[in-house]
């Protein structure tokens, strides 16, 4: 399905730095990320628990969708989405900037 460029421009992609990671009790897949976008912090839930440790994530910058509707998952609110591709086995591979980028920067 194709979308127009105007539709694509509605998606807000920003650089965020993960400042903490917590396990979600009762979930084998989900973790709770606390993410800084410079001017604000958000809670984002991600199904990457089996693939990434907190050591892999905390202090690192990744690309997030920041204007999704908030969503309740397992009673917790997720306020965005971390971007990931899939490797040859379908495992998530997180998307990060190849150079240092300012936290909160909008992807254009």
Structure commentary:
The protein has one domain (11-94): Nucleic acid-binding proteins (OB fold (Dihydrolipoamide Acetyltransferase, E2P)). It has two helices and nine strands. It has helices at 5-9, 54-57; strands at residues 13-23, 31-36, 41-46, 61-65, 71-73, 76-78, 81-82, 84-86, 92-94. The strands form three sheets. A five-stranded antiparallel β-sheet has the order 3-2-1-4-7, with no helix packed on it. A two-stranded antiparallel sheet has the order 5-6. A two-stranded antiparallel ribbon has the order 8-9. A hairpin with a 2-residue loop joins strand 5 (71-73) and strand 6. The radius of gyration is 14 Å and the shape is globular. The two termini are 22 Å apart.
Summarize the structure.
The protein is mainly β and 108 residues long. It has helices at 5-9, 54-57; strands at residues 13-23, 31-36, 41-46, 61-65, 71-73, 76-78, 81-82, 84-86, 92-94. 8% of the residues lie in helices and 39% in strands.
Biggest sheet, open or closed, and with what strands and sense?
A: 5 strands, antiparallel
**Radius of gyration over C-alpha positions, nearest whole angstrom:** 14 Å
What is the class in the CATH system?
Mainly Beta
Strand order, sheet with most strands: 3-2-1-4-7
Order of helices and strands: HEEEHEEEEEE
Q: What would CATH call the architecture?
A: Beta Barrel
User: Tally of extended strands?
Assistant: 9
Please give the alpha-carbon distance between the first and last residues: 22 Å
Return the CATH topology.
OB fold (Dihydrolipoamide Acetyltransferase, E2P)
């Amino acid at each position: 399905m194709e979308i127009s460029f105007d539709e694509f421009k509605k998606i807000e992609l920003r650089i965020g730095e993960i400042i903490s990671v917590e396990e979600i009790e009762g979930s084998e897949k989900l973790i709770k990320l606390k993410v800084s976008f410079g001017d604000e912090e958000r809670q984002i839930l991600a199904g990457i628990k089996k693939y990434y440790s907190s050591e892999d994530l905390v202090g690192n910058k990744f690309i997030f969708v920041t204007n999704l509707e908030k969503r309740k998952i397992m009673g917790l609110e997720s306020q965005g989405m971390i971007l990931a591709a899939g490797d040859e086995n379908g495992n998530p591979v997180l998307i990060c900037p190849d150079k240092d980028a300012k936290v909160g920067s909008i992807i254009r």
